[in-house]
Amino acid sequence: MPTPHALLVKFPGTNCDNETSRALLEAGFSTEVLPVALLEPGVLSRTQLLVFSGGFSYGDYVMSGRIAQLITKHKLGDKLRSFIDAGGYAMGICNGFQILTQLDLLPRGSLVHNTTGRFICKWAGLKRNASSPYLSELPDDFELPIAHAEGRFVGEEGDAAAYVKDGTAALLYSTDVNGSSERIAGLQDKSGRVFGLMPHPERFTLKRHHYDPDWNQAERGWGHYMFTSVRKAMA
Amino acid sequence: MIDAPKKAVYRHIPLTGLSPDELLAISQRMKLSLSKEDMLAVKAIFAEEKREPTEVELEVIAQTWSEHCKHRIFGAKIEHTVDGKSEVVDGLFKTYIRAVSHRIMDKKPDFVLSAFVDNAGFVKLDENLAVCLKAETHNHPSAIEPYAGANTGLGGVIRDILGAGKGAKPIASLDVFCFGPPDTKQDAIKAKDVIHPLGIMRGVVRGVRDYGNRMGIPTISGAIQFDDSYIYNPLVFCGTMGVIPIKDIDKSIRAGQLLIAAGGRTGKDGLKGATFSSVSLTTASHEEDQTAVQIGNPIEEKKVADFILAARAEGFIQFVTDCGAGGFSSAAGEMLSEIGGQVWLENAPLKAPDLESWQIFLSESQERMVMSIEEKDLERMKELAALYETELCILGKADGTGILKVTHHGEMVCQLDCRKLHEAPRRHMTAEWSSVDDSEGDVFIPIEDAKTGNAILKALLADFAIVSREPIIREYDHEVQGNTLLKPLAGATGDAPQDGAVVRVDGSTQLASMSVALLPEWGKTHPHLMGRACVDECVRQLVAVGSDPDRIAILDNFCMGNPDDHRELGALVETVKGMAVTAEAYGAPFVSGKDSFYNYFKTDEGPVSIPCTLLVSGMGILTNPDHIVGSSVRGPGHKLALVGEASSGLAGSVFARVMKAGAEDDELDFPQGPDFDEQMAFADYHSYHELVKKGVVLSAHDIGEGGLAVTLAEMGFSTKAGLKVDLAEVPTRDDTPAAEHLFGETPGRIVFEFAEEHAEAVKAAGFSIIGETTDDGHVTITNGKTKLVHANLAELKPVWQKGLAEWY
């Protein structure tokens, strides 16, 4: 199959673009990190996967991802929606997920401060709650590192439970790590092509990334399989 | 927006005809921190030129000659007396740091690529890449404003790395703190406005967190010391490691090149930070010196970092340095000191329009970098700055005259021959030290059964010196960049302590390791031994995690109280001498370092100084990811071996502190320091590394604070196995009593786990097999048939794990 192209938007403060690009390359994508200064609708025609990487876009001093969302919307307008409708994929990791939830590409809801009020850097157990092009090569239970201060998903009354039931919440934490409603860790849109998650798949692409030197559940880290999953879905 | 007044604002300060006391009065009024001798030298410079200095010039000289920038105490001639015997130390830095490193570099020609000349020292990683490390302190700002002080402390050292070579990429950070104990009683603090240690700790941790996390640099290594002596003057060390192509290490500036500044704007924040950090703290500092503390903006720094790394990759940067203490004056001063050139202050973008000339030139506003480029590359540099959304200005131009000329709206506000500036008058100082009398030896604490042993082990695991730093570590993103392979917390449950951290380096098959060591308690009574032990511990931890013992480089960061106090300076001299001995024996060169003086506070009841504190931080290289060794046991049925030997001597140990704190009377005395031999230790580290390369070592943990018993417990916190050791199998250097065996902190020791099939190889390497891993979930230490410790790890772990949580 032809090599699909991933375009990673880099805002001031985006800081996981390098390793995310590396993980995508290892999964068979060609990649391009694009400073937001160069973002315009035309770039969408040369990519199949639009990636919003982790970090602290514009410092996240307002609400996490808020400024990045406004600028993206300003620059791309409804062309972003048309890109998805035409079969394009979009993935948001951590800060990228926070941006995606505000871009109306994912069902409504917000990512707010963890109940502890703290930044949390640790590994979290995850459960696949629905089929998704991003999860097809992963088992029902796996783990990935998390690192965020604002990762607690909250929705309007009843939304979270409905998302779990209808599979919009494709990814759940296996235990409560940040106070997220219904332990939601990741969401997808109806098409499945738009996917956002708080955990960092790009940080677990090798066995050696795992904290336990004896970890041996797969040939590579679970994160790698998230990228190969979406790669396969594009074939 | 209000337009800035289009003229220079500056004054002349007449010095002609003034007496030494009047000169000193000027220094004090302007807070220049220049001594009488310094001011006389300044007067002479301008008398020769037959003119009066401007305040800009005086400020530039004060910054250049400040202890912070010039390290005059490490350059001073010191008359040092130990136990009545006198010697003259002709410069601590020259004699015990640079000379040692140069001798090591002569023996290992292809390892250190640059030391002491740039922002950070570089060592060779592979044929194409080099790594560098730099650590700084930010003590006084953190005492006054913990969050902003620590925030900008890390921000500053990251810029040191961005300004190392033609711009190194920051890949990992460390942070080390010394605080007053969290349970300090409020009424024990004998000065107004001093922030309680809890406030300091929370502010400092969040300051580091918010800068490091936003910059996307993993904070992978660190340490915290708690002691009463740090209540008034906490210590905050921040360090960053960088990577750079070897071809981009050498930098030089030529006449005709432009100086450009990029990053944040210049404001009144951070005025006179260098001179501020070169005097002691008082309650008044909390009121008056607020402008010396800068405000951090990590995203501004992230943008300028992205810009510099892109510009370096395109080959546009000829020279780059950070605006450290002294702001543009230090950056331009460094770049133009030999070649000379012009600086145009009106070109600097300002945060507010009303800055006076000296303020623009001296401001330490954060997130600014200065670089030199060829004029032809200016347009492309402007494009890159626009791409990464950072502000760029043309600050000046190198002209080959050897004179630094600073103009502001056409008026000459500073014109100095930089060559004269670098000749600060040399200081002459006096130091003395008396060794403690240890002829009586340590008080004997009998440990004859497991009940006593268990109780002491639990007390040590719960002590602030040893409890898990997990609540703090989790606030730092230690995995961003996706390269952290050995994490600060690891093992089967991801929460057990490790000896150091290991990161992959993009573009190389080699890996970099990082570790830190500091033992200030030892320095109170045994500074020479502290110097030796800090170097040993840092190197030993790097070796334990799998680094090649021949490819380790270290940094020395000193903090002390009042250098004019002979005894305090004596402790420093002893520490430096001790450190030099071990570094030379281990062939571990110092590649960079920094010192911080005047860490004392004038309380209502007199001055309180910190103990002489040495932080040794190190970087190591692993040739292969298979060599990574964690500190958590891997499973039952394996054997345990010991590198090194036990010895008597509990001075400075956590055990001694806990025993003294729990004693009814003041009679408990532990004057004797432990004994170790560097030649033997380093030979052992080589033998150990050979086993690592053969894949024999499954896990390893150094014996440090809390001794063998704490080491074994920590190895067991992975929950995969228990550990059982027989002291009868442990080699000793003397008639070591049980307490020393269990809880003594003799340097040079590592416990490691291996599979029984390798027993012959381990013995052949000269190591004693001291025990095994078990499936009973206990840590058990026997002396022959007598059990001295037998404790359930499931009970010990929460004691250790939760000790800090309730305070943070």
Structure description:
- The complex is a heterodimer of chains A (235) and B (808).
- With 235 residues, chain A is of the alpha/beta class.
- Chain A has a single domain, classed as Rossmann fold, CATH 3.40.50.
- In chain A, 24% of the residues lie in helices and 24% in strands.
- Chain A contains 6 helices and 11 strands.
- Chain A has helices at 17-26, 66-76, 79-85, 95-102, 159-166, 222-233; strands spanning 5-10, 30-35, 49-52, 89-93, 110-112, 120-128, 141-148, 152-154, 171-173, 184-188, 194-197.
- In chain A, the strands form 2 sheets. Chain A has a 9-stranded mixed β-sheet, sandwiched between helices.
- In chain A, helix 1 (17-26) links the parallel strand 1 and strand 2.
- The longest helix of chain A has 12 residues, at 222-233.
- Chain B is an alpha+beta fold.
- Chain B is built from 27 helices and 33 strands.
- Chain B has a 7-stranded mixed β-sheet with strand order 10-12-9-13-11-14-15. A 7-stranded mixed β-sheet of chain B has the order 28-30-27-31-29-32-33, with helices on both faces.
- In chain B, a hairpin with a 2-residue loop joins strand 1 (77-82) and strand 2 (85-90).
- Chain B starts with 19 loop residues before the first helix and ends in a 7-residue tail after the last helix.
- The relative contact order of chain B is 0.13.
- The mean pLDDT of chain B is 93.
Assign a percent range to the helix content of chain A.
Answer: 10-25%
**CATH level 1 name of chain A:** Alpha Beta
Number of domains of chain A: 1
Helix content of chain B: 25-40%
Strands in their spatial order, largest beta sheet of chain B: 10-12-9-13-11-14-15
Cα separation of the termini of chain A: 6 Å
Count of beta strands of chain A: 11
Shape of chain B: globular
Class from helix and strand fractions of chain B: alpha+beta
CATH topology of chain A: Rossmann fold
Strand count, sense and closure of the main sheet of chain A?
9 strands, mixed
* Full CATH superfamily name of chain A: Class I glutamine amidotransferase (GATase) domain
Name the beta content range of chain A.
15-25%
- The topology string of helices and strands of chain A comes to EHEEHHEHEEEEHEEEH
Please count the beta strands of chain B (DSSP E, at least 2 residues each).
33
User: Rg of chain A from C-alpha positions?
Assistant: 16 Å
